[in-house]
Amino acid sequence: MPKTVYLILSRNTIEKTAWLCDSLKGQNIRGDGAAHVQNEVGRMDILIFLSEFMVPLIVFYIVGFGLLSDRPVFDDFLKGAKEGMRTVVGILPTLIGLMTSVGILRASGILDALAELLKVPAGWIHIPVPLVPVILVRMVSSSAATGLILDIFKEYGPDSLIGNITSVMMGCTETIFYTMSVYFMSAGIRKTRWTLPGALLATAGGIAASIFLAEMM
Description:
Blueprint: H1 11-24, H2 32-68, H3 73-108, H4 110-117, H5 119-124, H6 131-138, H7 142-156, H8 161-172, H9 176-187, H10 195-216
């Protein structure tokens, strides 16, 4: 399953990067360090171009492929939209229940108590203590975890070690219980077999990889 890579920068960092790109364009800069900076600016321009060009390309590709296949593109779009609305209506009670449960969990202080309780074990396996609530909430709700992440960024900064670990971890972990409850309920599956143990194992691997990669940066 493809994962979303979280690249979260502070506003100050973005403004400095934009100013640097604008100031370096068209200038005759000398030295190996300046050449490296120019290469990085060129790569950033390429990434920005690809990110702006990718979505229209995918849309035109889908429409063009449908026309070449003699498919009623607009009718297929309406059919898919109707099925999507039925899916939303079907999973809406589950979403409301999950969001309410997570809100109560955060407001009750249980996450803080668990973080304090797991402080020593987390230190044994080199997990920063502020990440413990994020790890727990991430397995239930991505939006609630994002709120905790913003608190971490405000306190430690997005470019800190904890900020880097959090950003990488959000890209290589999944909302296990949310995904299982929504999709299995929609498909009418009651026996999940080894899905939960496999998902927990993959989450542990993602957390370990995020800590390892962030420390290498």
